[in-house]
Amino acid sequence: MPSPRAGLGSRIAEIAAASTTKVSMNIRRGMFRLWLVLSILFVIGVGVISYGGIREEFRIAYTDWDGLAERYGGYSLYPVDCEKARGTLGADYSRDEGLCWYKTEDFRRLYPEYKDVSNRVLSEMLCAKAGQPLQHVHPWNQVMKTAGIAFGVPLAVLAVGWSFIWAISGFRTHSHIGASR
């Protein structure tokens, strides 16, 4: 407490120094709370926007396409180099894009050496031989990328904001900090 002789000017300076420190502390707390609310909203927004695409990737990745084709009367086609084709064009296979395409039953009948290979492995192997490897969908990779964006952006904003506050607080004089204690 200043002496009564100190005068009005020094008392005003002391009050101003104390209020500046309190305001800056409230600004820091308020900015952190604002960052927290905006970060939660950002994470929710990224989740909502990304949900449909990620769900679709999981559906594609975990669907048994051969089983689905059998259930609904469809069929899978296996590509073979036409120079190695067996059977009759039009009856056993069709020709398209420089390859001969066999239905599963026709391929199994004409190529008995593949009888112990599952349809899935056979499809992958024949597509790779034909130069058209199957593209696999990895939905967990997309989940990790989305989570990285959803949490990485707010953390980067926090780091940049904190560093700005830290840098700006370096311009304060020590007398203001000491006066608030």
Mean pLDDT equals 83
Report the uncertain regions.
none
Number of domains: 2
Which strands sit side by side, in order, in the main sheet?
Answer: 1-3-2
Helix/strand order: HHEEEHHHH
Please outline the helices and strands.
Elements: H1 8-61, H2 65-71, E1 77-81, E2 93-96, E3 99-103, H3 104-110, H4 119-129, H5 139-169, H6 174-179
Antiparallel strand pairs: 1-3, 2-3
Quickly list its features.
rod-shaped; mainly alpha; three-stranded antiparallel beta sheet; 181 residues; 3 strands; 6 helices; 2 domains; 64% helix
Describe this protein's structure.
The protein has 181 residues and is mainly α. It folds into 2 domains: 7-62 and 138-179; 65-129, no CATH class. The protein has helices spanning 8-61, 65-71, 104-110, 119-129, 139-169, 174-179; strands spanning 77-81, 93-96, 99-103. The protein has a 3-stranded antiparallel sheet. Strand 2 and strand 3 form a beta hairpin. Helix 1 packs antiparallel against helix 5 (139-169). The model has no long low-confidence stretch (mean pLDDT 83).
